[in-house]
């Protein structure tokens, strides 16, 4: 199902060929001046330079030869040689009907299916998730859904941090708490270990390690012992890992985020010895002050990149080491055509290091590994968001704040007054999550934004709650129409507001395609708001149940149904679940 821009472009290209013009300049897009035209083509200006004629003359020749009169009247020429197209009402009616009857709401699929691995979420085991994990989780989940919707085979992997220095810190912290690692005492302590214990132990241990060199060295040795397979260390690690995983899965579930793979750094550990040997055989690994590194700077780099530290001077595997081993594991288990690492932009250098080593070693082809960086969620001071006390806000607490604010918003607007308490809480939860997700996804992922819960939870403006209300409103319209005996009929476009709604519905495929190609969900989010606003204008000026003409009642009801279908598809791509009623 080609959208209108593609169909106009194809028809334009035929005209260009007939006139001996290069069809690559025949591209048609939505008009910058919707008051003058639906679509435009600027190709006549480029052609004029090639053939030595005036752009207006070239444009006039193209307009004269226009043949797709079932799609648009002959284009008009404006300005220095712009071609303006106005789609016929009959063509819009047919397009709207197809969108309504298509379960994909007019969106196409990729020509060549790929195997795609999306690495996102990335929390550390034994630490509670905090606001810093929010953007990776929200953006990664949406990209996973968009790529899957476009037709790729997609795996989402949380890739937990469960094998590094933080585990060594916790092991020596437990050792000090128990006065040693006596197996019986350790066993008894692990029986009652909770996430609250870990949440208390880790910050204290991390702070102590910054000041106490002896404690820091013990933690490094404990990390090495764990990675080397020391049984008691492995037992402690496994308990901490399992306790953390239960809590982490609950946090992700609260956000409506799921993974196909729940792997951690530890799952890649068995691949590290052979990987190290392979790097040695390829003469990529070299010694540096007792550590093992791989240099990654290239002659054409504008600045020197630090080498990737593979093995520390204590002999333990590092962050980059497990990332490399994970690539080898994924190549064996999945063999993706494309990897997307949805991680904070501040980690950009790290991924350049890892990607270059993996490519130099021949484990993956160049171009398969992509870092999908993003900015930070900031406080009013423009710095990464903190609590009033200056600490990092836990994700659980953030979700709780959003839910409380959503309850307040619903009560203030007297929304959901006829719902049961359980139904009201369900709506408040959905409003809160929509507020958090759309606050993020409305921004290009590369930019930072200021956290403003009051603004995010508003039912007015470009917010998640506004979109939810738009969906619930259309559902209510359809219910009332059914109660009044109004049924859908063939789409017949005549009113300007109907035209605008269909043109917006038609733009869905381009929004999804652009989000897919640029790895940027905000294009889909922006389309959702454009569609909701177009429907609002349509409904204000084009009554449905009150319309006296039966054929127009049926047509407009069909347009409402098409809008609802597309909005619900979009919300699903953004990871947002709308309620049935409010």
Features:
Gyrase A, domain 2, 582 residues, 4-stranded parallel β-sheet, alpha/beta, globular, 4 domains, 13 strands, 4-stranded antiparallel β-sheet, Isoleucyl-tRNA Synthetase, Domain 1
Strand and helix layout:
Blueprint: H1 4-18, E1 29-30, E2 39-41, H2 43-51, H3 55-65, E3 76-78, E4 82-85, H4 89-101, E5 115-119, H5 134-149, E6 153-157, H6 165-178, H7 183-191, H8 195-211, H9 213-227, H10 231-254, H11 272-281, E7 286-288, E8 291-294, E9 308-311, H12 319-333, E10 338-342, H13 348-360, E11 369-372, E12 377-378, H14 395-412, H15 421-441, E13 449-450, H16 453-456, H17 464-483, H18 496-506, H19 508-518, H20 522-541, H21 550-573
Parallel strand pairs: 5-6, 5-10, 10-11, 12-13
Antiparallel strand pairs: 1-2, 2-4, 3-4, 7-8, 8-9
In short:
This protein is of the alpha/beta class. The protein has helices at residues 4-18, 43-51, 55-65, 89-101, 134-149, 165-178, 183-191, 195-211, 213-227, 231-254, 272-281, 319-333, 348-360, 395-412, 421-441, 453-456, 464-483, 496-506, 508-518, 522-541, 550-573, and strands at 29-30, 39-41, 76-78, 82-85, 115-119, 153-157, 286-288, 291-294, 308-311, 338-342, 369-372, 377-378, 449-450.
